[in-house]
Design brief:
about 80% helix, about 375 residues, Hydantoin permease, mainly alpha, 15 helices
C-alpha cells in the first residue's frame, strides 16, 4: 500500500513539474502584457473566444507529442533531432531555427530594457536586463529541475495576479460593451483560426525542445495528465484574458493592455503588473536560453561556456531595441514555427510503432524501455 501511495505521489510531482515547464514557457512577455492575447484572439470577438478552446486542445495534443518524441528519439543532442526532422536539409534548418531562438532570447532581454524605461527611465545603464541575464544563466546551469522549481514559485503569483486583473476588469466593464463580442465579419472565423494556429505553433516552437528533453524521464501517464492540465489552464486563462480586453476596448490603444487595466484598479496593481511582466519575460528567457545552450553544448563540450556564450550573443542582439527585433526579425520566424510543428507531427506518426523496432528507425540511439 505504501509503495502504491509513493508511486502516486511521484506521478503527481512529475505531472506538476511538466506542467510548470510547459505553461511557464508559453506565458511569456507577449501574453502577460495582453498584446499577444489581443492580436491572436480578442480582436475577433466571439470567434476569438471560441478559438481559445481550440488552442487549449491543440496545446494538449502537441504537448503530448513532443513529450513522447523525447522517449522515442532519445537523442543526445539537438543536432541529432534536427537530422530526424529534416533529413539531408538538417544543417540548413538547424542554423535557421537556432537563429530564430537567438532572436526570441534577444527580444526577452530587450523586454527587460522596456520595463526599465517604465520604472527608471532616467538611468541609461541596462541594469534590469543584466540582472535578468545573470539570473537566467544561473537557472539554466541548474538544469530542468531548477527551471521547474523556479516556475513553481513564479507561476502561482502570475496566475493569481492575472486572475485578479481579469475578474476586476470584467466586473467593472460597462454592460453595453458586451455587444462588441458579436461585432464580427464573415471572414473573422478564417482569420481567427489562422491566428490561433500561428499562436499555437509559435509557442510550441519555443517549448517543443525543452518538452522533448523533459519527456525522456516521464511516463506516458504523466505526459497525458500534464498535457491535459496545461491545455485546460491555458484555454481558461486565454478565454478570460480575451474577454477582459474585449469588454475594455480602450486598453488595446496601449502597448501593454493589461498594464492599462491595472491602472484602473490601483497603483499597487500597476506595480504588481510590472513585476509580473518581468517574471513572465524571465520564464520564457530561461526556457529559450536552455534550448540554445543545449544545442551549442553539442559543439562546445562545456555547459558553462555554451550557456555564457548564448547569453552574450543574445544580450548584444538586444541592444538594437525591442521594437526593432519585433518588427524586423520576428516575422521571419513565422513560417519556421509552422514547418517545425508539421515535421514534428510527421515524425511522431512515423515512430508510432512497437518499441522493439525503434532501433531500426534510429540506429544511432539506444531505446531504453521504461
Amino acid at each position: 500500500m505504501s509503495t502504491s501511495k509513493s508511486l502516486k505521489k511521484t506521478s503527481k510531482i512529475s505531472t506538476l513539474k511538466v506542467f510548470l515547464i510547459f505553461f511557464g514557457t508559453i506565458v511569456g512577455a507577449g501574453f502577460a502584457s495582453g498584446r499577444e492575447v489581443y492580436v491572436y484572439f480578442a480582436r475577433f470577438g466571439i470567434w476569438g473566444l471560441l478559438m481559445t478552446i481550440f488552442a487549449g486542445v491543440a496545446f494538449f495534443i502537441l504537448g503530448y507529442i513532443f513529450l513522447q518524441l523525447g522517449k522515442r528519439c532519445r537523442v543526445n543532442s539537438l543536432s541529432e533531432f534536427f537530422a530526424l526532422l529534416f533529413g539531408k536539409f538538417a544543417h540548413i534548418f538547424e542554423i535557421i531555427i537556432m537563429f530564430s531562438y537567438i532572436i526570441v532570447l534577444g527580444a526577452m532581454f530587450a523586454g527587460f530594457d522596456s520595463l526599465q524605461k517604465i520604472i527608471a527611465s532616467n538611468i541609461q545603464f541596462p541594469f534590469v536586463s543584466l540582472i535578468g541575464a545573470l539570473l537566467c544563466v544561473i537557472t539554466v546551469l541548474g538544469g530542468i529541475d531548477k527551471i521547474s522549481k523556479l516556475n513553481g514559485i513564479l507561476l502561482p503569483l502570475l496566475l493569481l495576479f492575472m486572475t485578479a486583473i481579469f475578474s476586476i476588469s470584467i466586473i467593472k466593464a460597462p454592460i453595453e460593451n458586451l455587444q462588441v463580442i458579436t461585432n464580427v465579419t464573415e471572414t473573422s472565423l478564417v482569420q481567427s483560426l489562422s491566428c490561433c494556429i500561428i499562436f499555437v505553433c509559435s509557442n510550441m516552437f519555443l517549448t517543443g525542445f525543452i518538452l522533448m528533453k523533459t519527456g525522456v524521464n516521464t511516463t506516458d501517464n504523466v505526459d497525458k495528465k500534464a498535457s491535459i492540465i496545461t491545455g485546460i489552464v491555458l484555454s481558461i486563462i486565454t478565454f478570460f484574458a480575451s474577454l477582459s480586453i474585449i469588454l475594455n476596448p480602450i486598453s488595446v490603444q496601449y502597448d501593454m493592455p493589461f498594464v492599462y487595466l491595472a491602472f484602473g484598479v490601483s497603483d499597487l496593481f500597476v506595480v504588481l503588473s510590472i513585476v509580473i511582466l518581468w517574471l513572465a519575460i524571465f520564464t520564457t528567457a530561461v526556457a529559450t536560453m536552455f534550448t540554445i545552450s543545449w544545442w551549442l553544448n553539442g559543439y562546445i563540450n562545456d555547459r558553462h561556456i555554451s550557456t555564457l556564450l548564448t547569453c552574450l550573443v543574445a544580450f548584444l542582439l538586444s541592444r538594437v531595441g525591442f521594437s526593432f527585433i519585433i518588427d524586423i526579425f520576428y516575422p521571419l520566424t513565422g513560417f519556421m514555427d509552422i514547418l517545425f510543428v508539421i515535421c514534428a507531427i510527421i515524425l511522431y506518426k512515423k515512430t508510432k510503432v512497437q518499441k522493439h523496432t525503434y532501433k531500426q528507425i534510429f540506429p544511432q540511439n539506444t531505446y531504453k524501455n521504461k
